[in-house]
Amino acid sequence: MSDCIFCKIVAGQLPCSKVYEDDELLAFHDIHPFARVHVLIIPKRHIETLADCLPEHEKLLGSMLLLAPRLAVEHGLDTGFKTLINTGRDGGQEVFHLHVHVFGGGNPVDRN
Ligand code: 5GP
Ligand code: ZN
Q1: Across the strands, what pairs with 28?
Q2: Is the pLDDT of residue 109 over 70?
Q3: Which of 9, 14, 19, 30 maximizes ligand 1 atoms within 8 Å of its Cβ, making it the mutation to test the pocket?
Q4: What dihedral angle (degrees, nearest 10) is formed by the CA atoms of 63, 65, 67, 71?
Q5: Secondary structure E strands in the chain
Q6: The whole model's pTM is what?
Q7: What region does 110 belong to: left with phi over 0, alpha with psi -120 to 50, or beta?
Q8: Measured in angstroms, how far is the CA atom of residue 79 from the centroid of ligand 2?
Q9: What is the rounded CA–CA span in Å between residue 41 and residue 28?
Q10: What CATH number labels 5-104?
């Protein structure tokens, strides 16, 4: 998807503050964090929303969720964290490339 911000990040055409990468997934700090720790986990391939996922995406979705607690602990959220998947315009989704928010730890730090 040529006009997708997250696809551009995956392609290296836009910078990100990367915290994790494997063959299928990328994770990076949210540019406008709403908590001290706020990372986004995305699939490298373009899937617009959770509602577009099919049975063939089951393993990918599992990998995204299993990565969440690992990244949370790595960023000091040992005692708990929140996850969020906004889906669709009325679900508050702004970037139409599937992503899981992982956040916690109190007030945000501006990463601009
Ligand atoms: P949504 O509302 O779609 O669930 O969340 C999109 C998130 O992506 C927002 O929290 C927003 O701050 C973040 N975001 C948007 N553009 C960029 C970007 O270019 N880089 C990074 N790191 N995060 C972004
Ligand atoms: Zn995309």
Answers
A1: 18, 40
A2: no
A3: 30
A4: 170
A5: 18-21, 25-29, 37-43, 82-84, 100-104
A6: 0.95
A7: beta
A8: 32
A9: 7
A10: 3.30.428.10
